[in-house]
Write a structure and sequence with these properties.
globular; Rossmann fold; alpha/beta; 5-stranded parallel sheet; 2 domains; 410 residues; 7-stranded mixed sheet
């Protein structure tokens, strides 16, 4: 009888330990408001990765792709608690604090708008909780001396460098170089940082900036700004805009019969399937920098399986934003697993030691390694173009699945 009692107690204790071992992570996105669709897509991306880590399934050829929980933590499961910042930096601040003090999360992850990441990271720093920025691109976020901030994806200096490297390459290949650009950007930290970098790189490349237009985010109309773009007549229009503004911009161009020779976007709204669905053929030929290449299956064999799982939830393919969100959780979960602990200091130490080869993810990056500012230095961008209603990778050549359609100088 004593043995049976002891065995029963042991089973109860094991069950209690398994339940206690669940790892609780706070995910903060705009689940309502103007950017609600992007937030809901991010939620589904994170849920997809959590299911890949937690559930029993056929092995997927990537880091933590075996299923069954975190292997070095006795099969502990990832549990996500989502919070809605409504695209409001002050709401993001309050939600970050609530997740830490009331839900006792071991780390934070988010957040789409760079302005919200700025306030979330300040809260994380104050409470000494790791914050992993998965899709925020403002360079200034990783230049503030924060010690609990990490970012897996490239920032706008890295992204913009890829744009201008592409301009140089395509000009050499076609004999039709970019001689002028027009900048249009929203009045946020994202737009300010993006346009600032673009100005500097244009000057360094000897490219004239013929228009420099700052507009109010979520404006009811961009007709006046688009008219000024048409009057400027630049070779390339370079927008830094979220989804609603990107839709307004393309529709306004159509309304006045303006079709720029090229559009090279700073991602955000121009890489969103909602944008493509809304404007249809008006988006054809638009280019954007990107972190992700859905068509890079030869070098990233996990893409088809992971994309199928995401599509089953979201009804759409992974894109630049959702792939970054998914992989961000993968990287954070790996750090927790290597730490073998849910103590924030241990997780931070493990994040700092991260060294993941790109082939262990779905991204076309060299890998994931963080510098002293928490920035991944191995995240090399690609350029994509909408061709036939779909995003196709056109640069660099080693991952390209299509040739660029280039009308500059014709």
């Amino acid at each position: 009888m004593t043995r049976l009692v002891l065995a029963a107690l042991a089973l109860l204790l094991c069950g209690a330990r398994a339940e206690a071992a669940d790892v609780v992570i706070g995910a903060i996105f705009g689940l309502s408001g103007n950017a609600a669709q992007s937030g809901q897509d991010a939620k589904m991306a994170m849920e997809t990765e959590a299911a890949i880590i937690n559930d029993a399934h056929a092995p997927i050829p990537m880091l933590l792709g075996q299923g069954g929980g975190l292997p070095h933590m006795g099969g502990a499961k990832i549990r996500l608690i989502f919070a809605d910042h409504e695209a409001d930096p002050q709401k993001a601040r309050a939600e970050a604090e609530r997740l830490i003090t009331q839900d006792h999360v071991v780390a934070l992850i988010g957040s789409y708008q760079s302005a919200t990441a700025a306030t979330i990271s300040q809260v994380a720093e104050r409470y000494q909780i790791p914050f992993l920025s998965v899709d925020n691109s403002s360079p200034s976020l990783s230049a503030r001396g924060l010690t609990w901030f990490f970012r897996t994806s490239p920032h706008d200096v890295m992204f913009t460098q890829a744009m201008f490297d592409f301009f140089k390459d395509i000009g050499a290949q076609t004999g039709r170089p970019v001689k002028s650009v027009a900048l249009i950007y929203e009045d946020s930290i994202f737009g300010a940082d993006s346009s600032g970098v673009q100005r500097k790189m244009a000057a360094a490349a000897g490219i004239k900036v013929l228009a420099d237009l700052r507009y109010r985010a979520n404006s009811p109309s961009l007709a006046a700004e688009v008219a000024r773009l048409k009057a400027a007549g630049a070779d390339v229009v370079m927008p830094s805009s979220y989804t609603n503004d990107a839709i307004l911009m393309l529709r306004a161009m159509h309304d006045i019969g303006y079709q720029p020779p090229a559009i090279m976007a700073q991602d955000a709204g121009f890489i969103d399937q909602t944008f493509v669905n809304a404007v249809g053929p008006l988006a054809e030929g638009a280019m954007s920098r990107s972190s992700f290449a859905l068509d890079a299956v030869a070098s990233r064999p996990a893409i088809p399986q992971v994309n199928a799982l995401f599509r089953a939830r979201a009804g759409k393919d992974l894109n630049d934003m959702t792939s970054r969100e998914l992989v961000g959780l993968q990287v954070l979960a790996d750090a927790i697993d290597r730490a073998g602990s849910t103590k924030p200091e241990d997780i931070r130490t493990a994040l700092r030691a991260t060294n993941i080869p790109g082939a262990q993810t779905i991204m076309p990056w060299r890998g994931i390694r963080f510098d002293q500012n928490g920035q991944n230095t191995e995240a090399n961008p690609v350029i994509e173009q909408i061709q036939g209603g779909h995003y196709r990778t056109i640069w660099p050549a080693d991952v390209a699945s299509a040739k660029p359609v280039w009308h500059v100088g014709e």
